Amino acid sequence: MTGRFLSAADVPALLAGAEFFSTSAVEEGIEFAGVWLQDVLTHTGPVQLVAADELDPDTLCVAIGAMGSTVTMSELPPSGDEPEMITRSLADRLGSPPAAVMPLNAANVNALYPVAAAAVLGLPLIDCDGMGRVFPLIHQTTYELAGMSLTPLAIVSTGHDLTLLETSSTRAERIARSMARAAGGWLLCGMYPGPARRLREAAIHGSVSRVLDVGQVLCTYAPNGVHARELGDVAPWPTPSATPTRDPASDGRPPGPHAAHRLTTTPIERLLRALSEVTGAELVGGGRVMEVGPSVGQAVYPGNPIGTVVHDQDSGHLIRLEAYTELLLALTDGALTAAVPDLICMLDRGALRMTGPERLTVGDQVSVLRVPAAPVWHTAPGLALAGPRAFGYPLRHPCEEGR
Fold first, then answer.
1. CA torsion sign, 120 to 121 to 125 to 130?
2. Model-level pTM?
3. At 296, is the secondary structure helix, strand, or coil?
C-alpha cells in the first residue's frame, strides 16, 4: 500500500483542523488530546494513512471514536490501553481482529483518537470518516445511512470498564451515553465493524487529509504559531511575518498552501480566502458579538443550548447563531442563512483561530462561515437524520427550497 504517514510533527495541523471541523464545539479546547497524541506517535512512530480502496475488499475495519465531555477527557485522559481492549473484544465476537481503523468523525478529539488507536495497534488509518463534522449522536453517520450496523459496539471507560453491546443503533446510543455518565464522563468506542468494500458507499472519503490541509492553513496564519506553542512544538508551516515584504518560504521550507495570498490584503482576508479554497467555505458575515445567552430552542440532543448574536460590520445585519454545543443554525435578520448538516463555524478575528459560544464574550470580533456538508447529508434520509428538524427546529433546510 502507498499512502501518507502521520507523525508527531503533524499533530499541530491535526489539532487546528480538528477545531475547525468541530463546528465551534471547542469548549475549553482540545490541546490535551494533541499533547497525548504527540507522545503516542513519538513512541510508536508514524501511522500510515490509506484510502479505503487501497485495502483488500475483505479487510475488517472498525470506527474508533469517543463520546462524552471533552472537559472530562482533559481531566481523565486515556491511558493508551483502550484501543487494544476494544479490538480484543470485537475480535472475540467477530472471530478475527480488525485490520484497519477509521474515524467515527474526523473532527474535535475524534480526529486525534483514531490516529492514536492506529498507532498503538500498529494498523493503517483509513482516510475517511462518517460525519465530516461533529454530530452529537454516534449513529448520526453516513455509515448508518448506508446500512452499516453500529453494533457490535465495544466501549471502554477510563477505569477500563469494558462492555460489548448488540442492539439497535438508537438504543445503543442511549445505553452507552448512560454508561458514560456513570463511568466518569466519557467512553472510547469501537463500532461499525465491516469489510473495506462497504466503505466505498458508506464513508466520506479524504476526511483526514482535509483536516490536515485545513490545519496547515490555520497554523500558517495563526499569530506566533499559537497551535504549536500550546503543544510545545514548532508549526508544520512557517508563520507569515508581520511585514509584507518577507517571503514565508525564504527559510528554505515549503511555502505551504496559498502563499501567493500572503502579500495582499489583511491577514483575516487571506485566511478566509485560503479556507474557502480548501473547504468551499462561504462567509455568512462577521463583526462584533452583541449577545451570548440562552438558546430560543429546546434541547433535543445532548448539549448546551446557547444563542449568539453577531452584528455584521459591513451590512449592518444581525446574525443569530443557535447551538446545542455545536452550531446548528445561522439566521440573518430572522431569515435562515445556514443550517445543519452544513458546518457553521466561527473564527476569532483577533487570534485567527476557531472559537465557539463558550469561549466568547460580548465585544469579541468573529467571522461566521458556512461549509457545505457532504452531498449525502443533503438527501432526504440525510436531512431526516441530521437536518434542522432532527434537532427540534421546524425549519426546512435551505437546500430543500427547490424541491
1. negative
2. 0.88
3. coil
